[in-house]
Amino acid sequence: MDWQGLNMMFERNGDFAPQHGKRYIRLQFRQHTTLATLIITGASRGIGKSIALLAIQNFNANVIGVARSQEALQQLSRHIETELHLKDRFKYVVGDVTEESTVEDAVALAQKSWGGSIDGLVLNAGVIDPLGTIASTSVKDWKQAFDVNFFSIVTLIQHALPSLRQSKGRVLLVSSGAAVNAYHGWGAYCATKAALKMLGETLAKEEADLTVVSVRPGVVDTEMQVLIREKGKDGMVPEQHARFVELKTSNTLLHPDQPGHVIASLAVKAPKSISGQFFSWDDESLHAHRK
């Protein structure tokens, strides 16, 4: 092959230089990186916002963010474009995840952006309400909790599955210690998170080409913790409520970036070998994914 042909394959870096009667040229491979496209729910604040930012900054992902607050999503988009100088890396859908049209819009936006692939879902949106005993809370409130924490996730997975099968993508379920431990006054939340854990295990068995991982993020300094401290006293046992207050006053709550980095990393490069498993964010087997 002549030099012209080689230049079609390689990028020239340096000039010909005579050495011992021979001529050499330094050649550098052109690198073409295909960015992963992720859909992240609850992306406007807390852990979801951290996951979105870290996925874009640290793991070279494109992100479709989904949340109810248009203002918060707009602010996040401006921050990414004007302060991080990363243009056309974040798009968003404003809507309630319990409405199927929101899910449809998110999947459609992902499919018409950045080449049309959906490489991962980060299913983070969730509510802790109703806080209160089983006897004192209404079935209506329980159904709302399941709509947000469970059925919205089933809906998004179902709509995204055809694309995820093509990309052999990843599904990250943001779980909780409440998935495996019962807490007084948290009946609805515990039940939804336990159901979500089993959903992940089942999906991993049914969709062998996908990588499905559940992660409990620990006790993180988010608005959910504010709600627990302000509204949880009546529904929780005193010792349990006092523990959450103490975590705040002692400044020992996790920063969202700590579990957020692990989840963002897993959304882009979780190995197939861990599919179907449930991890704490600081599990030693996930050490390589920590910040």
TrEMBL record:
<dbReference type="InterPro" id="IPR057326">
    <property type="entry name" value="KR_dom"/>
</dbReference>
<protein>
    <recommendedName>
        <fullName>Ketoreductase domain-containing protein</fullName>
    </recommendedName>
</protein>
<keyword id="KW-0521">NADP</keyword>
<dbReference type="GO" id="GO:0050664">
    <property type="term" value="F:oxidoreductase activity, acting on NAD(P)H, oxygen as acceptor"/>
</dbReference>
<feature type="domain" description="Ketoreductase">
    <location>
        <begin position="36"/>
        <end position="222"/>
    </location>
</feature>
<comment type="similarity">
    <text>Belongs to the short-chain dehydrogenases/reductases (SDR) family.</text>
</comment>
<dbReference type="InterPro" id="IPR036291">
    <property type="entry name" value="NAD(P)-bd_dom_sf"/>
</dbReference>
<dbReference type="Pfam" id="PF00106">
    <property type="entry name" value="adh_short"/>
</dbReference>
<keyword id="KW-0560">Oxidoreductase</keyword>
<dbReference type="InterPro" id="IPR002347">
    <property type="entry name" value="SDR_fam"/>
</dbReference>
<dbReference type="InterPro" id="IPR020904">
    <property type="entry name" value="Sc_DH/Rdtase_CS"/>
</dbReference>
